[in-house]
Design goal:
Oligomer: single chain
Shape: globular
Number of domains: 1
Structural class: alpha/beta
CATH topology: TIM Barrel
Strand order of the largest sheet: 7-6-5-4-3-2-1-8
CATH architecture: Alpha-Beta Barrel
Helix content: 40-55%
Radius of gyration: 17 Å
Number of strands: 8
């Protein structure tokens, strides 16, 4: 069965509640036309409840940008899986490079967060990727494969549909530099091969793997045309409804071209 594409907006630390309301109101009717695509909006915590409320039973899923693997306790400033579920959240980003690079999250923490998300029926979008220095030194695959393996080791018997990976070369995030579609396919194809080696064909073929890193309407169709790329995790180009809708349409056209 073909993997269902996903187009995900990561607002990062942007948008007030009012701005989130305006964006969601404009997005919902447009996203309804993309029947073959899963649309996720990863909003800041302050906006999440409102995005989830407005999205309701629509095709748009409200997602959180982070959470902690404990359900409650003395973890000042953190948010738990039950809190996210309580406000209608359906997905969560785990291990974004900004969490790893700025806030010191290591592979162990990312793996524990992923496991807790799966247990809670929150869909984790697990980010992996290398720095420019690591890539230039020939260490891209050592870095990325280690990140993927640590997560897979933690998931035990979980099915492939329960987790999404996002390959985000750190040197391409917010820089305007984009891995060529062929480079992105090469990395994502290797990730799928690794999943096949470690968990078998069924698991590998059911896991969705997104690309992230300066994805724009201008390059989306070419990225989506790659056989192992199942969508995108989008930063800057997702902050305006119009450009994000163009990306959703590119994903829709990749699976159901207009007649």
């Amino acid at each position: 069965m073909p993997r269902r594409p996903m187009m995900a907006a990561n607002w990062k630390m942007n948008k007030t509640v009012r701005e989130a309301q305006d964006y969601t109101a404009a997005l919902l009717p447009r996203a309804a036309d993309a029947e073959e695509v899963d649309v996720v909006v990863f909003a800041p915590f302050t906006c999440l409840h409102e995005v989830a409320r407005m999205a309701g039973d629509s095709a748009v899923v409200a997602g959180a940008q982070n959470f902690y693997y404990e359900d409650s306790g003395a973890y000042t400033g953190e948010i738990s899986a039950p809190m996210l579920l309580d406000v209608g959240v359906g997905a969560v980003i785990v291990g974004h490079s900004e969490r790893r690079e700025i806030f010191g999250e290591d592979d162990e923490m990312v793996a524990r967060k992923t496991k807790r998300a799966v247990e809670a029926d929150l869909l984790p979008v697990v980010c992996v990727g290398e720095t420019k220095e690591e890539r230039d030194a020939g260490g891209m695959w050592e870095k990325v494969s280690g990140q993927v393996r640590r997560v897979i080791d933690e998931l035990e018997d979980a099915g492939g549909e329960s987790v999404v990976f996002a390959y985000e070369p750190i040197w391409a995030i917010g820089t305007g530099d984009t891995a060529t579609p062929e480079d992105a396919q090469d990395a994502i194809g290797k990730i799928r091969d690794l999943l096949r080696e470690t968990r078998g064909d069924d698991f590998a073929e059911s896991v969705r793997i997104l690309y992230g890193g300066s994805v724009k309407p201008e390059n989306a169709a070419e990225i989506m045309a790659q056989k192992d790329i199942d969508g995108a995790l989008v930063g800057g180009a997702s902050l305006e409804v119009e450009s994000f809708v163009e990306l959703i349409e590119a994903a829709q056209n990749a699976v159901a071209p207009p007649e």
